[in-house]
Specification:
By secondary structure, the protein is mostly helical. The chain has helices at 6-19, 32-49, 53-58, 63-82, 91-105, 111-119, 124-150, 160-180, 182-191, 193-217, 226-253, 258-269, 273-283, 290-322. Helix content is 77%, strand content 0%. The relative contact order is 0.19.
Length: 324
């Protein structure tokens, strides 16, 4: 299994942000906020270009599978984390909880979901459809979930009218524009998909640098110890296996075949680092603790790739032995 290159790249960027946070400082000559905003808009414009209307139409048939995946992504994940909110007492605990909840409210990732389903010999068309649909739903649902708790958090004051305006101008409008131009430039986007993916990851790394540089500059991480880090790792691993197991159980009740069960479990447990980092610039633009909020997502991203990769490899070998 190939290692996702963005995982070590994130670690390097965090180290750079620790030693050289000046570029993200308020008086910096580098217009990093403007660059990130333009980058976010371009990411979602290219995302709209790559949305295939034909695949979306053909994917609507298997509605039970789609309903399970989207329900797991946007309802099951957040509800599990909400159950633990009453036990959060200190501001530090609430901030770390908010980071895990942000992770839980995010849509599924597209590329790695499809790749892993392919390795495991699952339902590839359904994975493409659901990963794409999840991204569209997430643009609307994730901010709604976060609005319930972020507005009441004491980490900062938030103008959600301004936030939703940015959401429309930086995300929804570019997606709609890209989708409208799909028949003209869609082939171009597919042809240079790997190049666009590199661009996406570059913007993600820039946003991560900005978030962590600001957090380091304001000494936000001084309150996060090694024990807290281990607790977050344990939480995201437990969350992954809990949702993975529940989806598998529900798939059995719905009598899914093996391919659909694999697709449901893989797509329903993945969370998008792309959407998480770009949403953070819209939702948490005024917060100095954005780095802490992104921490559970980055850990989950690395862990989900490792766990799903191992599971996909085993499932792929098993199906090869049954169907040589």
């Amino acid at each position: 299994m190939k290692i996702d290159k963005i995982v070590p790249a994130i670690a390097i960027v965090v180290v750079i942000a620790y030693f050289f946070p000046q570029a993200a400082a308020p008086g910096s000559p580098v217009p990093i906020d403007i660059i990130c905003s333009i980058g976010v808009s371009l990411i979602f414009f290219f995302y709209g270009l790559k949305l295939s209307p034909d695949k979306i139409k053909s994917g609507l048939r298997n509605w039970q599978l789609h309903l399970l995946i989207q329900t797991s992504t946007f309802i099951l994940f957040p509800l599990i984390i909400i159950c633990f909110y009453p036990w959060m007492q200190t501001e530090q605990q609430k901030l770390l909880w908010l980071g895990v909840f942000f992770l839980a409210a995010l849509p599924s990732t597209v590329s790695s979901s499809v790749v892993m389903v392919s390795i495991a010999k699952g339902n590839i068309p359904a994975s493409i459809f659901n990963a794409s649909l999840s991204g569209i739903i997430g643009i609307l649902v994730t901010p709604l979930w976060m609005g319930i708790f972020v507005s009441g958090s004491q980490a900062g004051d938030f103008d959600f009218g301004h936030i939703y305006l940015k959401l429309v101008t930086e995300i929804i409008v570019p997606v709609a524009l890209g989708f409208a131009l799909q028949k003209y430039w869609g082939a171009f986007a597919q042809k240079y998909s790997s190049t666009l993916s590199t661009f996406d990851k570059s913007v993600i790394l820039l946003i991560i640098y900005k978030s962590f540089a600001e957090s380091f500059e304001n000494r936000v991480f001084s309150t996060v110890g090694f024990e807290d880090l281990l607790i977050i790792v344990a939480i995201v691993i437990s969350l992954f296996f809990l949702v993975y197991g529940l989806i598998g159980y529900i798939s059995g009740l719905l009598r899914f075949n093996t391919e659909d069960k694999i697709t449901a479990q893989f797509c329903g447990t993945k969370k998008s680092l792309v959407h998480g980092t770009v949403f953070s610039t819209v939702l948490f633009g005024n917060m100095t603790a954005t780095g802490i909020i992104l921490l559970p997502l980055m850990l989950f991203h690395a862990i989900q790739i490792l766990l799903i990769g191992v599971i996909a490899g085993k499932l792929g070998k098993r199906t090869e032995s049954i169907h040589p």
